[in-house]
Design a protein that fits this description.
This protein has three helices and 15 strands. With about 300 residues, the protein is mostly beta strands. The chain folds into two domains: about 45 residues, no CATH class; about 200 residues, Immunoglobulin-like (Sandwich). The relative contact order is 0.18. It comes from Gossypium schwendimanii (Cotton). GO terms for molecular function: copper ion binding; oxidoreductase activity. InterPro entries: Cu-oxidase_C, Cu-oxidase_fam, Cu_oxidase_Cu_BS, Cupredoxin, CuRO_3_LCC.
Length: about 300
C-alpha cells in the first residue's frame, strides 16, 4: 500500500516502529522493525518517546487501524472510480482455506494443500499466457473456476470434524473487458486459520468492505464504503472475517491472483484472472513479440 506523508510537524526526528500482526494458531515470530523519520534541516534530538505497540494478536487494534484508512482526493491519486451496484456484472465469492489431500507416499497418509473455493492451483508446464495467445492450445487450463464455494458451511466456526472435498486443477476466472467485478474473500478456520494477504496482478482495486464472521450477501453489502475506499493491489483478509473488493476489468490479459504468504501460494492458494479483449486495438491484449521464447514442445 502506498501512503502519502505530509511533512508538516515540528522539525526534528520521529520514531517509526512496525510489529507483525498474527491471528493464526501457528507460532509467529515477534520481530519489531524500527526506524527514524528525520527532517533534513533537523539539528537532531528525538521529538517522541519510544512507541508502544499493540501485541501481535491484538485484532481490535488491527481492525481499528484499518477502518481509518480512506482514499484521499489529492493530485497524486487517480480519480476515484468505484463500481456502483449497477456496474457489477461479475460477482465472485471465494473461501480461503488450508486443507488436506490423501497422499499414498506420505508418512501420515495426507499432505497439506491451500485452496480457493476448494481448488488447489496446479502450475501448468505451459504458461497460461502462451496458451491464451494460442487459441488452439487446449488442456493447459479450464475456464471453470467455481464462482462460489462448492460447500457452504460455518466458515469461521468450529470445523474440527468437517471434511470438504478438495481437488487440484488449473481453473481460471474469465471476465469481459470493462465489466465491474466484485470479489468477496472469506477467511475460514480450515487449517490454522488466520489472515491471508491476497494480491492481484495487473490491477489496483477498491477495498469496499469488511466484517466479522460469515459474509451475508443480503445485509453486508449495505455496509460497503463506495465513497472513498482505499485503492490497493493487496488486501489483508483477517482471520474469522471477510473483505470485499471492486474494480473495473479494463486491463486485458492473463493475471495471477495469489496469497502473498509464499508457503500458501506454493501450496495452491492461487488462481488466474483472464480479462477478455475489448472491441478495439486499444482495449485488447498486445500480440506476442516475435522474439518471445516459447515453452519447450510448443
Amino acid at each position: 500500500m502506498d501512503v502519502l506523508v505530509s511533512a508538516n510537524r515540528n522539525v526534528g526526528q520521529y520514531y517509526m516502529a512496525i510489529r507483525p500482526f498474527s491471528d493464526s494458531s501457528a507460532a509467529p515470530i515477534d520481530n519489531i522493525t524500527t526506524g527514524i523519520f528525520q527532517y533534513t534541516n533537523s539539528e537532531g534530538g528525538l521529538n517522541a518517546s519510544l512507541i508502544t505497540l499493540p501485541v501481535m494478536n491484538d485484532t481490535d487494534a488491527m481492525i481499528n487501524f484499518l477502518n481509518q484508512i480512506r482514499n484521499t482526493n489529492v493530485s497524486q491519486n487517480p480519480r476515484i472510480n468505484v463500481p456502483a451496484d449497477k456496474d457489477i456484472k461479475r460477482r465472485v465469492f471465494i473461501a480461503l482455506a488450508v486443507n488436506n489431500l490423501p497422499c499414498s507416499t506420505c508418512v501420515v497418509g495426507s499432505r497439506l494443500v491451500a485452496t480457493l473455493n476448494n481448488v488447489s492451483y496446479v502450475s501448468p508446464s505451459i504458461d497460461i499466457l502462451q496458451a491464451y495467445y494460442n487459441r488452439n492450445m487446449s488442456g493447459v487450463y479450464t475456464e471453470d473456476f467455481p464462482l462460489n464455494p462448492p460447500v457452504i458451511y460455518d466458515f469461521t466456526g468450529n470445523l474440527t470434524n468437517l471434511n470438504t472435498p478438495v481437488e487440484e486443477g488449473t481453473r481460471v476466472i474469465v471476465v469481459n473487458y470493462g465489466e465491474g467485478v466484485e470479489m468477496v474473500l472469506q477467511a475460514t478456520q480450515m487449517g490454522a486459520g488466520g489472515s491471508h494477504p491476497i494480491h492481484l496482478h495487473g490491477f489496483s482495486f477498491y477495498w469496499v468492505g469488511t466484517g466479522f464472521g460469515n459474509f451475508n450477501n443480503k445485509t453486508d453489502p449495505s455496509t460497503y464504503n463506495l465513497v472513498d475506499p482505499p485503492l490497493i493491489n493487496t488486501v489483508h483478509v483477517p482471520g474469522r472475517r471477510w473483505v470485499a473488493i471492486r474494480f473495473f476489468a479494463t486491463n486485458p490479459g492473463v493475471w495471477f491472483m495469489h496469497c502473498h504468504l509464499e508457503r500458501h501460494s506454493s501450496w495452491g492458494m492461487d488462481t488466474v484472472l483472464i480479462v477478455r479483449n475489448g472491441k478495439t486495438k486499444k482495449t485488447s491484449i498486445r500480440p506476442p513479440p516475435s522474439t518471445m521464447p516459447r515453452c519447450p514442445g510448443t
